[in-house]
Design a protein that fits this description.
This protein has 269 residues and is mostly helical. 81% of the residues lie in helices and 0% in strands.
């Protein structure tokens, strides 16, 4: 693997892995404590509609997917404020419609034979410089957001009603968390794909939650674990010539299995 570092595409893949791991660890923690995994899953799959539109109109894939995912996130946020008891139905609807829109527009694109595997299971080795810039900007925005509004985010995440009584605009922060989740999902798609993106944002976060005493600590540990799993998965993918997204998730799942076993053995002592 060391000799492979001389290749630009491997360097780009490693940079992308670190950036996506950092933002996934932070946003994944917020998704977990806000119990929004199903919401994030709906946004992830609906973003395929943006991919299809971007392909059809000749726009950058990240741009199309990001705009579409953010729109879906805002729609989900508005529905959750007014009809929370029906939220699962609307998420399923947005999930299915987004995927359908993407497939239709890909089919309508003249002379375009899209490699669906690259979007479903990731293509981290195909990350471009423009992709890395997008990831870096998002990571910086998330870090600024967390640093500036950590107390408000903490209050909203654990008790939104109490936060509202304290004068914090819970709806605004909930919507903002969903928007950042949508954008994080989009960049993570490049690494592990639509099918596996929630696993990338859930497995390291779950492990970090078990060994953390605060949300801040959980974010840091989740980001670190995500980076470790992603880099190890990338190395395995390179060595055995297998799909990088699947390799990263299987590495994460194996680590979760080991963690669960050791935790049980430790608790029985």
């Amino acid at each position: 693997m060391i000799e492979a570092l001389h290749y630009t595409f491997i360097q780009n893949a490693l940079i992308a892995a670190i950036l996506v791991s950092l933002v996934s660890g932070i946003i994944g923690s917020l998704i977990l404590v806000n119990r929004m995994t199903f919401l994030a899953g709906g946004i992830a799959h609906s973003s395929y509609g943006g991919i299809g539109l971007a392909i059809y109109f000749g726009l950058p894939i990240f741009l199309g997917a990001s705009v579409f995912a953010v729109i879906c996130a805002v729609i989900i946020a508005l529905i959750s404020f007014k009809q929370r008891h029906r939220l699962d139905i609307f998420i399923g609807l947005i999930w299915a419609v987004g995927m359908a829109v993407g497939i239709v527009f890909v089919d309508l694109t003249p002379g375009y034979n899209v490699d669906l595997m690259s979007y479903l299971f990731g293509s981290i080795l195909a990350v471009s410089r423009e992709d890395i810039i997008f990831m870096a900007v998002l990571t910086l925005a998330v870090l600024i957001f967390i640093h500036r509004y950590y107390k408000e985010i903490l209050a909203v995440s654990y008790d939104s009603e109490y936060a509202s009584l304290r004068g914090i605009n819970a709806k605004f922060f909930f919507t903002l968390i969903l928007i950042f989740s949508a954008l994080t999902v989009v960049v993570a798609i490049k690494v592990v794909g639509l099918i596996l993106v929630i696993a990338l944002m859930s497995i390291p976060t779950y492990i970090a939650e078990q060994i953390s005493a605060s949300l801040y600590s959980m974010m840091l540990k989740s980001a670190l674990l995500s980076a470790i799993f992603t880099i190890i998965g990338l190395i395995i993918s390179y060595q055995f010539d297998i799909t990088s997204g699947a390799s990263i998730i299987l590495t994460s799942a194996a680590a979760l299995g080991l963690f669960t076993v050791f935790k049980k053995l430790w608790s029985n002592k």
